[in-house]
Amino acid sequence: MSLIEDRSLTAPAPNPALAAGLDEPLTVLHPDGSRHASELLDAHLGDVDEHALTDLYVDLSILRRIDAEAFALTRQGELLLWPPSQGQEAAQIGSGRALRDTDFVFGSYREHGLAYLRGVDQGEAMRVWKGVQQSGWDPMEHHLATPQIIIGAQSLHATGYAMASRLDGSDDVAVAYFGDGATSEGDVNEAMVFASAFQAPVIFVCQNNQYAISEPVAVQSGFPLALRPTGFGIPSLRVDGNDVLAVLAATRIAVERARSGGGPTFIEAMTYRMGPHTSTDDPKRYRSEDEVAAWREKDPIVRLERHLEALGAPIDRIREEARIRCDAVAKDLRAAVTAVSVPDHRALFDHVYTTPTARLERQRAEHDAFVASVVPEEHA
Amino acid sequence: MTAVDAQVRTETLQLGKAIGAALHDALEADDKVFLMGEDIGQLGGVFRVTDGLQATFGPQRVIDSPLAESAIIGTAVGMAYRGYRPVVEIQFDGFIYPGFDQIVAQVAKLHYRTKGRVRMPMVIRVPYGGDIGSVEHHSESPESYFAHTAGLRVVTAATPQEAYSTLRAAIASDDPVLFFEPKSRYWSKGEVDRSIVRDLDAASILVPGRDVTLATYGPVVQTALEAAEAAADEGIEIEVIDLRSISPLDVDTVVASVERTGRLVVAHEAPKEASVSSELVASVAERAFASMQAAPERVTAYDTPYPPSAFEESYLPSVDRILDAVDRTLGRRHSRSTEPAAQGGAR
Asked: Is the same domain home to A133 and A163?
């Protein structure tokens, strides 16, 4: 398949309303747990029964527990750093559950929910935060790129992957996750230029958690971020990011569009990072308790719990099931993190190139000789 | 000529056309190879290096990209994730900086960050160097920025044969390679044998000589050869080494040469500070100091921005500046010291 020769067939028809949810983010689950009709979203939620809702609830709970456990491990000196995801569970689980295994995810450093959904062993995932490895998992095995610290850089990688998928004649899609601050970066904007020009089957999931470290989103933009992609001809959906069903439905819409040759979609998931930017940050310096409390009322897990209860689901049993699963994940996580050992110093030189250069081998030998000269050999 | 020789596919090509031939042959040999860049398709590139390739291989293999260098590199990263072998073109040396982050923070490091699980078999083609009488940002030599970054291979070529062989090797490499093309030599002609593929890491001794080692690369190779010829008229034998690989530098070859000659001159178009010559002189001094009979000399551009083209002749290494440096290593001229007052001499 050519990237450009059939542009005239795939270019979106002029649409005065490329963005949905600008006035009010699209939602179906309200904070009190009640379900409201949405013409746009409901059509993509037909299969979500009580069983599926229970699964989503367990996923959300496990992600929150992973986050809490990892954060605690930073305080105990087991992990160096942790970027918390509390509050963003629905945005991550809802979007991640709309993908299939062969789709490729390019996240930032906060998408712990995606790592969990893509089957990454939590001990592997934590190696980055323990400072022993820069990517704990095999990106090719999990179809999940290595964590990305450079803000927005992964949006280009996802777009390129999507272009390649299209060239292959495949219907695999690529998904880029980034935050509100990333929309100010050139790379995210260039990614939208390429995605639009080549009608790449890529989905941009912007988790607007309201803050780029300390800067409120108003510093990045004076208008909804979901308006930006419309300038590139990319349709966007602005959804309640704390409503797991809204995010699921919106992502399904985007995935279906991408798989069927309809090109890219931008999703702005309106959410809130309840904790600090990372375990070294102090959010009290830049936001009020009142603001945090107001968002606590919109908690994605409580919301789904209330909804299940309103449906008459056996909420006590579901809660207990989630607790058992969370305890098991937390126990495994703690054991795995504790078991991670510092690699042999010689690994410092591994994998710089596919085949080592003579120059690096010389430095490796110099390093080994130096270490041997200063560390006395143990005597029996 | 024997029958075997007759079968060798040699032809006379300009250096730019040799690069086009290498791209053609690589596209033909592997359907995972594709080209992407600004104006490379319909137009055939601003230097016509990719002329005819889109017509032959189609717009899905030779992709005219939007005008965004970071995205050209960054989307190629994503395509490499899916098993492609991108060959991207940056139109001019001075335009590479918007793509710098993707090159040094992503392309260079992904193999290391993922413990070898993600490979970036990408080639970034960069027409570079001056002496074409152009306006600013069209004549720079930014190779040192990339040589400084682990994970990248940085190579160049001086002749049509080298250009063909180097590019084929670069595309075959599973490591990311920056291929700096000496644009002032695009129109120089030479024999090209398409069966020759080179070793990406090795320098090449072009002219053996006993008196002075002259190491250089890219567009200055021709200047160095002319200098060696002129010196030979005076009975001075200059050993000319084409470094070919800027990173990793083939220090071994230069050290072995300096151990024979005792003298080293390094020449390139890039400014002097923190340059390839800085690295080479330091590395050779570390290993062959005892063999050196004179302080090493460097003939480079000056540490100014690339000047208006009216100044190019003064700015770039010339045959005379190289011979001047050779003379200093031989003790035929005074040292470079320009401290006037203390000497009190005539000025």
From this structure: yes
Contact list in A for residue B102 (CB cut-off 8 A) is 153, 156, 187
The answer on A265 and A227 residing in a single domain is: yes
Both tokens of B34, joined, read 């594709």
Domain residue limits at A369: 345-379
Quick one: tokens of B59?
């717009």
ipTM (interface pTM):
0.93
Rounded to a whole number of angstroms, the distance from the CA of A187 to the nearest CA of chain B is 7
Task: Tell me the average pLDDT across B43-69.
Answer: 97
Domain holding A201: CATH number? 3.40.50.970
Closest CA to B336 of B272, B283, B256: B272
Determine, yes or no, domain membership for A13: no
Phi, psi of A82 (to 5 degrees): -150, 130
Q: Which residues of B touch A1 (CB under 8 A)?
A: 60
Same domain assignment for residues A176 and A277: yes
- A54 to chain B nearest CA, in Å? 35
pTM: 0.94
* CA angle (A306 as vertex; A305, A308 as ends), nearest 5: 65
List the one residue out of A151, A150, A191 whose CA is nearest residue A174. A191
Encode pLDDT of A264-300 as tens digits: 999 999 999 999 999 999 999 999 999 999 999 999 9
Non-local CB neighbours of B286 within 8 Å, separated by 6+ positions? none
Q: Which of A150, A159, A194 sits opposite B101 (nearest CB)?
A: A150
Q: Are residues A244 and A353 in the same domain?
A: no
Residue A15 above 90 pLDDT?
no
pLDDT given at position A380: 46
CB pair distance less than 8 Å for A351 and B78: no
The residues of A that are catalytic are 273, 277, 286
3-state secondary structure of B52: coil
Q: How many domains does chain A have?
A: 2
Asked if B63 lies within 8 A of A168 by C-beta distance, the reply is: no
Which residue, B72, B26, B19, B63, is CA-closest to B172? B26
My answer on whether A240 and A362 are in the same domain is: no
Cβ A180 vs Cβ A228: under 8 Å:
no
B138 is catalytic: yes
Distance of residue A160 Cα from the nearest chain B Cα, in angstroms: 4
Q: Are A352 and B151 in contact (CB under 8 A)?
A: yes
Task: Specify which residues A174 forms β-bridges with.
Answer: A104, A202
